[in-house]
Amino acid sequence: MPAPIRLRELIRTIRTARTQAEEREMIQKECAAIRSSFREEDNTYRCRNVAKLLYMHMLGYPAHFGQLECLKLIASQKFTDKRIGYLGAMLLLDERQDVHLLMTNCIKNDLNHSTQYVQGLALCTLGCMGSSEMCRDLAGEVEKLLKTSNSYLRKKAALCAVHVIRKVPELMEMFLPATKNLLNEKNHGVLHTSVVLLTEMCERSPDMLAHFRKVRQLSSSQLVPQLVRILKNLIMSGYSPEHDVSGISDPFLQVRILRLLRILGRNDDDSSEAMNDILAQVATNTETSKNVGNAILYETVLTIMDIKSESGLRVLAINILGRFLLNNDKNIRYVALTSLLKTVQTDHNAVQRHRSTIVDCLKDLDVSIKRRAMELSFALVNGNNVRGMMKELLYFLDSCEPEFKADCASGIFLAAEKYAPSKRWHIDTIMRVLTTAGSYVRDDAVPNLIQLITNSVEMHAYTVQRLYKAILGDYSQQPLVQVASWCIGEYGDLLVSGQCEEEEPIQVTEDEVLDILESVLISNMSASVTRGYALTAIMKLSTRFTCTVNRIKKVVSIYGSSIDVELQQRAVEYNALFKKYDHMRPALLERMPVMEKITTNGPTEIVQTNGETEPAVLETKPPPSGLQPASQANDLLDLLGGSDITPVIPTAPTSKPSSAGGELLDLLGDLNLTGSPVSAPAPQIAQPPFLLDGLSSQPLFNDIAAGIPSITAYNKNGLKIDFTFERSNTNPSVTVITIQASNSTELDMTDFVFQAAVPKTFQLQLLSPSSSVIPAFNSGTITQVIKVLNPQKQQLRMRIKLTYNHKGSAMQDLAEVNNFPPQSWQ
Amino acid sequence: MIKFFLMVNKQGQTRLSRYYEHVEINKRTMLEAEVIKKCLSRSKDQCSFIEYKDFKLVYRQYAALFVVVGINETENEMAVYELIHNFVEVLDKYFSRVSELDVSFSVSEFHL
């Protein structure tokens, strides 16, 4: 078998491939050659083959068959073999393959090797891909190496320790004693890696953090002063060629130390105090002409913001950020905006000073900067600057990319709601948002806007006029059209009458209004919901407009056969309204009352969802505005008391048989509305016959039986006792009798006691009476409930005994009641 | 924390890739293609930090080669930016006037 080609040859050949397919072909050929070479167990060329395999792996081709070969390479004695072997292990193997455990022994031996480079390789590999089992086994070795004097090894050992800690946090204590001396090194490599190790320890475990912070006896072993000292040396020392990066000494180490200081100083006064000076020094002395300096300053600012620094230092930090913002370099501006966003909560006033610069950043070309500037602008809006900011933000909304529009629109709504200086301005702003970014607004914007409009009573004419003008030109933006059609439906009369104080009134005829609404209905661009809004609006206009009622009737009847079920239902119901219930129409379609203000704290409150869904619900059914004041649905019984219900309810009782008298009507009314506030009005209108029939023939609710006549059980000496009956459908053998005792004499009857006895086949339960005094002149009654269990359905008979005091004397009477109606016991 | 380190040329060919977290091999090519597409579409005036999925990309262009580093939020972006430059300078010193060819041919040396 000829010697396998070198890596360079392979790369050269692959580069000559002109298409993806050619490349794949070459690679497959080479893979086959490599595989056969592996099978031959050829030691000399293994290293070359694995190198090629790694290259192909990097290009994205599978190379797992080389894993075992890597292990063999690691086990060999040659350095070049080991090198490629470890590299292959790092790239190809990870915890998921079982093969990696075989490496543990090799690594262990290599960690104790005489050559530091081999040790270094082993440490690197362990630090890169060691699994938790491997780490546990080898942690001791790593710790030993952490203490050697060889700085090359020490720094690698420190990084390996970082990885071990990440994998197996319990081993952290093991490395603690070794860290004591780490910072005494001169070698920057070791310093850097030890700072990383300390950072990792502090981030992982708050105990460690406390340990490092606390004061120890020897001041030289305190962590914070040590770090401060190192940092100072770095800044103050002159030019050192080893560590110089564009004029600054080892900026990477500086940044690391600053980060560790940040972690140590967070929420800790003592440490923060110790750091104040050095932070100020770094902030003022660092050169800002190059990017390096800016990187250090950025880290410094972040640290100052996070620890408990004094206010002078904070102002310094914000000024630095302000300077960043004015810089021409985009990177710096981006970084400044990000950090300002973090600090705007705490140092609001200081950030306000830079508001104009931030607003300018909105116009930047760069997407990342624009996003940051937008978020920051929303955070900065307050009562004073809301008008100016809003103008800028609206302009931004016009010109920004679609991915921003939704966020921007919601942000504008929130800000406008919180800080609107006047209602007109608020409405204007929302309208502007709807016209520019209408299709990106969130769904709850429409009900919110509607609620806002109804609240500002004086602005109705102005609002409807503007909305009308807006959709005249373009009715493709759904939320806008929805709001506009709702408003036109409600306030169409204001629009036509041309009375508007705020703006120049426009002359609109009823026909034109109907034209617009019809075109919305017909248009292909309208969503189903929008069409629903439009149809309802047209219907409402039938009461507001005077000369176009016929046209409206025609439109409504057309949609009675529409394919869209929602529209069809509405149209049919409206038709019915025109035909049978024309007398109810004005009352039903009158103006909506003012909706109560709802908080926007999320939709979980029941009150709010009721309020929120009220407008939505009202749109889906013909809005019986009288029946449903759109406030909280809690006070339903108050609803009953409201005068608006008169259109519907009175028709019901008139056709109801005078069955159980007054209470039944109340019960029915209460239950009617508490049961289902939404569906109740609808059936009353769309299928009124059923409801009214139901009241007479079918028992609507289980526990009420309309139709059992009441009887007078006793009538003597001015005392009259009536029995009223209820049968329970759930338990047919139970009859509930309510007795009512009334007194027609001139004097009250006191200490009234009612007793009853029934035949043995019945069971009787007497509940407590409402009182024991029957007032005179029939001005009041005593009620008491009797429950009779009649399992054998025999005819009810009862003997009653009455005792009371009347005219100063005790009276007593016995009577038998036989005239129970058959329905009460059958 | 640095998630990955890539050197990709303008045609989308990966010259060097080092992942510090496990990513499936087929996802890697997809990731690299997406990343390079984002970087290529940027103009010179735009800033070097892009937000991509849940981490940030810091990229820097050297002639026809893009060096892209993926970092998470805890890392200082500007420091990483500097790191990239430092790395390129080191390569320059090692190979004396490094070019893309050197990157392609000396992969193993790069890794170590």
Automatic annotation (TrEMBL), chain A:
SUPFAM superfamilies linked: ARM repeat, Clathrin adaptor appendage domain
GO process annotations (BP): intracellular protein transport; vesicle-mediated transport
InterPro entries from the UniProt entry: Adaptor_Complx_Large_Subunit (IPR050840), AP1_complex_gsu (IPR017107), ARM-like (IPR011989), ARM-type_fold (IPR016024), Clathrin/coatomer_adapt-like_N (IPR002553), Clathrin_a/b/g-adaptin_app_Ig (IPR008152), Clathrin_app_Ig-like_sf (IPR013041), GAE_dom (IPR008153)
Ranges in coiled-coil conformation: none
Gene Ontology cellular-component terms listed: AP-1 adaptor complex; clathrin-coated pit; perinuclear region of cytoplasm
Keywords: Coated pit, Cytoplasm, Cytoplasmic vesicle, Golgi apparatus, Membrane, Protein transport, Transport
Main location: cytoplasm
Domain GAE, first and last residues per copy: 706-821
The organism's place on the tree of life at top rank: Eukaryota
Compartments it resides in: Cytoplasm, Perinuclear region; Cytoplasmic vesicle, Clathrin-coated vesicle membrane; Golgi apparatus; Membrane, Coated pit
Topology in the lipid bilayer: Peripheral membrane protein
PROSITE patterns, alphabetized: GAE
Known function: Subunit of clathrin-associated adaptor protein complex 1 that plays a role in protein sorting in the late-Golgi/trans-Golgi network (TGN) and/or endosomes. The AP complexes mediate both the recruitment of clathrin to membranes and the recognition of sorting signals within the cytosolic tails of transmembrane cargo molecules.
Similarity remark: Belongs to the adaptor complexes large subunit family.
Name this protein carries in UniProt: AP-1 complex subunit gamma-1
Organism expressing this protein natively: Nyctibius grandis (Great potoo)
Automatic annotation (TrEMBL), chain B:
Keyword Cytoplasm: no
Main location as per UniProt: membrane
Subcellular location: Endomembrane system
GO cellular component, one term: endomembrane system
Keywords assigned: Membrane, Protein transport, Transport
Family in the record: Belongs to the adaptor complexes small subunit family.
Protein's UniProt name: AP complex subunit sigma
Taxonomic classification: Eukaryota, Metazoa, Chordata, Craniata, Vertebrata
